Sequence to fold (218 residues):
Amino acid sequence: MPIKIVFFDCDGTLTKIKSSWEYIHRRLNIWNNNADKYQALFHSGLIDYDEFCRRDALLWKGNRLEDLVCILDEIPYQEGAHEAVSALKKEGIYTVILSTGLSFVVERVRDELGIDMSVSNDLVVKNGHFTGETKINVGYNKKGYWVNRILREIGEDKPGACAVGDGEGDADMFSAVNLSVLYMPGEHISLPVNHIIHGGSLTKILDVIRGYNKNHEN
Fold:
């Protein structure tokens, strides 16, 4: 079965910044001795992902949504992101973003690239300001749930699904599809995937998908 749907990670895959959360912390000068400690606690297993996000979001309590959106609008796309998504759509392939990143980043990327659907995490806003509360829709390395759910909803199956991501948080997504592509992974990232693209334009995924489809035409 040829590829009918492609699931993309956002941060570090469609955009050049590896973490939109960290990008904001650094721009607000609250990364060192603040958010970096929460990340260390999470990676050491001392707090879970929801608590990690809750502590992160509390650092932004009271900030204006408008100001943070302006910061995140600075984040550039990966080379070839527009061209890759446009080519997939012309070939009738459905596209989805699954991201643990922030919805006001992911939804901008979705709309500007013309991606069909996205699922990401929300920060609660009241009267234009962040409350410090979160709504976690996509947990760390829990994207496989959404892959399976979306495949059921649109009537597709695992053999027709591809996933493109850049790190360990995409492992669950990779295991839920037949064709997995690790794009520009960081150092020491080692995952069981079908293809690894170490650099260059995101359009390189088109050759991978077209080659796969050629071998699965029947």
Observations:
- The two ends are 6 Å apart (CA to CA).
